[in-house]
Amino acid sequence: MVKARKFLAVVILILSISVIFHIARAEDYQSGSFILRDPVFTIEGGRSVSVSFEQIAGAGQTISGESTSTTFIHRAGFLYFPIASSPVLTGTAGDGKVTLNWTVSTGTLANITTYDVGVAAVSGGPYTFESAGNVHSFVKNGLTNGTTYYFRVQAKAGLLILAQSNEFSAAPAAAAVPPTPPGGGGGGGGGGGGLPAKVVISGLAYPSASITILADGMVIDLVKANSAANFKSEINTLNAGTYTFGLWAEDGKGRKSITFSFTVSLTSGMTTTISGIFIPPTIELDKVNMARGEILNILGQTAPESKITISVESPQEINEETDATKAGDWKIPFSTSPLEDGMHTTRAKAKTKDGSLMSSYSHVLTFAIGKYVVSELCPRADFNKDGKTNLIDFSIMLYWWGKYNSCVDQNQNGVVDLPDFSILMYWWTG
Amino acid sequence: MKKYILKLKIIIILIAGFVLFPGVSLAAKLYFEPSAGNYYQGDNFMVSVRIDPNAECVNTVKAIIGFPQDILEAVDFSQGNSILTLWIKNPEISQDSGQISFIGGTPGGFCGRLAGDPEKSNLLGKIIFQVKKLNISDKNTATINFLTDSQVLLNDGFGTPANLVGQNAVFNILSGAAKTPKTEWQEELNKDNISPESFKINILRDPSIFNNKYFIVFSTTDKQTGVDFYEVKEGKKEWKRATTSPYLLEDQSLSSIIKVKARDRAGNERIIERQPLRKPMFYWLIVLVLMLGVITRWFLKKRLKSKTEK
Question: How far is B129 from chain A (nearest CA, A)?
Fold first, then answer.
């Protein structure tokens, strides 16, 4: 009898624990930057406020979920905050209109259900928004030719604004009138035909950096970034057509960035705006040949207070992070202890302090550990050693094509061939 | 049942392969546009050669294209509006072997179509075909393909070859002749009234080429029908065809005006002039004679004055 009572007590205890555990079990909530583990509901709901924080407590409940009725919606559960990636806005000006296009905004803990397009008369707003629906392009009609308009797109999940795009500006213009074709064939001189196309390029580099802008590999503009690393260039000397634009920056220490390039088609008489460019950081090594275990200083420049990530190639890629200073300088003392003897490479990328822009990777630099030695023969495909990689170096390569030249044969395979041409294209400065 | 299990296994392996090695399926793609169509004998049509880098950045394209030389005649290749702006090997058509080949590059790399770009912006060039007059009664097909020696290289600083796939184009050649033969290329030529882009002439010398003699370098593009050829004129000499730069100068004294003419396939020209680095000899002679005259006059005047005083 005592045994039976004891057994019953144990069963009741186990069941109680099980029920309590079930009631008290909490779900983990997470966003891009944190995880809230095992949260517990308060018995009573309410709001507590102090100088530095606000706590909103949920009403007593046992499970999370949504209850609806005809008159109200009860959203139960802990408050957590969905985020979404920023859409990248571009567009083309037309006759009395601007056609806008943007990239997909992807939500975390929420789905993007609609995009609102805002237009403003001045940069920075205020914007007048209208719903475009769940689409990725929009034509804004009824605009005045010759007036510059500023656009921004908001990505929304229901009524919640989760992300907004970069600002895009455009000035609508009357359609180009095709010129009268010349009589007869041939003809000398040059020029002729069609209104020029305008392109506006803006973005971030490094504080007071010199930025060289190339179109199809030829230098077309030189601009200077301000102290906050912002730059802008307006070019209106190009004909309509497809161009590959390249941008590279030289920092205060004379280091040159990789050429950041993009290809776009320009329309006669229209303005194409490319904004939100983040030129990859400059990168330099304090030495290229070293013994295993030595500290390798990897340094360079980027936009002020950006987060730098370097990656070092080894059997397992090693990543390290640091923050750039207000002047944009960054430095990582990298311990080579985990690396094997041999040739290794490193490169860096940057993310702005507010996380809105992320650059692509910098130049890839090679260093050697142990008995291996990095060859410094004609680095950066600069065959005539004038500090630039341009048409002159291309001409020298053409001269040696299919033959051997220790300088031009960049990959040292015994002949000037396709990989050498690719290396020349990579290091191009114009 | 066994067959079914084998099929299932293959599917599972394929799915696992894609999940575990997603990068393997990534490959740059060379393709033709249009990739199909119906043409009659005597038709003249254009086929665009395009590239999809598939989320990679590429900077060098070597393309070798095969075509049935008994059905089609490749009459021209247009580099107009190409994303390749530097050509290590200009397009070459070999009608005998039925091949078209070229090697070109994009400085800084081509990373695919930009979001919002109204065009595809991935053109490598356009082949202009003419359908031959054939003694056929039935429908024939003409397949154009990329040969296996074609290569695309990544913009990674090491010249790494990209994984590459080539997509064929198959055209139906119908018997008989069209009432109005297609003349697509002629229409393009008629539309083009714009000269090649402006460019610069650089005068240089380098110990590594031409025995340290002076040469010029130049390059431009034409966004409509493409650059056909360049010509160089030194001083009063005749225009000379230059296949491409570097062009070795005849006048190594650098006292001639240098002109370079770029002509597109529609006949539009752009001429760029470069003043001589050194002034011609006769100019110096005139200056010398004048200076001597002034000095002599001053000397004689002084002498005459001193004689008068005496």
Answer: 23
